[in-house]
């Protein structure tokens, strides 16, 4: 499985993904699940992926091919699409078509082949937007009421987001929130694993403002995780019933 | 859905279940999911249920019928079975048979009919034991390494249990831990709902030591929930990355 989470805040977008990919429990590998398509200062698009690696890789390769195609226009290239809505539509259509083709190929094996994506970004002159794209190609969008979207193993890390994230959350607090959400998930589910990819896209920058790969044993992350565990245990002692 | 959790500690057993039952989102009802079979001072057996209500109710009715049958013997009545292992086997066999029959009846509708159970208890002279019984009738048992078992919507409430519960946890702390685990689940998943049933079975009592129904709006539970939220937010502010 996978855990990816994206926050759309007044101050910008904060994205975090793990890298564990597995086929069964005895075939575990590390693959990046966060990708950027940038034309700095004009547009930035981030994609995070969950699900069948063959579906997500092929979808991304097709999005790349469409961008590089000399005949690409605003209906096929996500770097030429006039709005983030149109970007989400192109990605949704590409994902849906790829998923159907691979599911057809896998039919005899009775294997599932599905995938979902979080697409976040901004065009100069447009608003920041963030979408969760379903395997069928349709999508939902993050709003003021629900400023975060998750794909993959989303349940373990949801309570902390429900409690602390609002659109007014600062980018610093937002990074802490997604890392704590990931920490709970890593502790409770083996199918989500280090290293992690963390990215921040500040509002109106139309470029990736910061990105960081957090490796297994990263001392900052381990310190945060230990401090959070200690704080939770302290809180547990203090709360009475 | 459902959330039920049981802890097997050195000091005793602590059990908590919700009561929400739904068929789709527009048909929501309240049903007890925690049941006791007691012969005080000789044996106590607690069963918590998750899954299709028709499967769990019929399974429990058949266990009752077997107890009341004049011809009942130690292979059919859970109040006569000589060990908790044999109790779990009778319950597993009854659940498995009931589930198969109802699944056959539902086949034309392409509806799932499945259920799982947590069975916990003790016989005088035996050890406390706690089992998770799968829909197929097989089961696993709580151990020193993993002193808790969960059924239903288990993911939201697992991180807190992973962090604070060990076999040495006191019965008071254990009740707090399961209530906080439930609190996280209630906040993040609509299919789990109040009221709650909480029970404690002290070691070697061979009887239910305490049971309590926690109603919607219970002031102790609301205070604990609010204090926990506040403590989490305080901890969040203190932890740095």
UniProtKB/TrEMBL annotation, chains A, B:
Signal peptide: none annotated. Pfam families: Proteasome. It comes from the Bacteria. This is Peptidase.
């Amino acid at each position: 499985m996978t855990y990816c989470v994206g926050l759309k805040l007044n101050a910008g977008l904060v994205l975090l993904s793990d890298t564990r990919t597995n086929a069964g429990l005895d075939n575990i590998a590390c693959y990046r699940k966060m990708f950027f398509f940038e034309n700095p200062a004009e547009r930035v698009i981030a994609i995070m992926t969950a699900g069948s690696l063959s579906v997500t890789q092929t979808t991304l390769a097709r999005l790349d091919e469409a961008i590089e195609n000399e005949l690409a226009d605003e209906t096929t290239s996500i770097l030429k699409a006039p709005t983030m809505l149109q970007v989400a539509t192109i990605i949704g259509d590409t994902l849906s078509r790829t998923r159907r083709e691979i599911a057809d190929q896998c039919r005899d094996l009775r294997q599932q082949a599905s995938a979902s994506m979080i697409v976040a970004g901004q065009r100069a002159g447009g608003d920041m937007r963030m979408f969760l794209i379903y395997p069928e190609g349709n999508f939902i969008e993050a709003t003021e009421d629900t400023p975060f979207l998750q794909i993959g193993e989303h349940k373990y890390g949801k309570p902390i987001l429900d409690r602390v994230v609002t659109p007014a959350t600062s980018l610093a607090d937002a990074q802490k929130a997604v890392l704590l959400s990931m920490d709970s998930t890593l502790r409770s589910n083996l199918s989500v694993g280090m290293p992690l990819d963390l990215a921040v896209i500040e509002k109106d920058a139309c470029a990736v403002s910061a990105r960081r790969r957090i490796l297994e044993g990263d001392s900052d992350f381990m310190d945060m995780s230990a401090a959070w565990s200690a704080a939770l245990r302290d809180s547990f002692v203090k709360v009475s019933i």
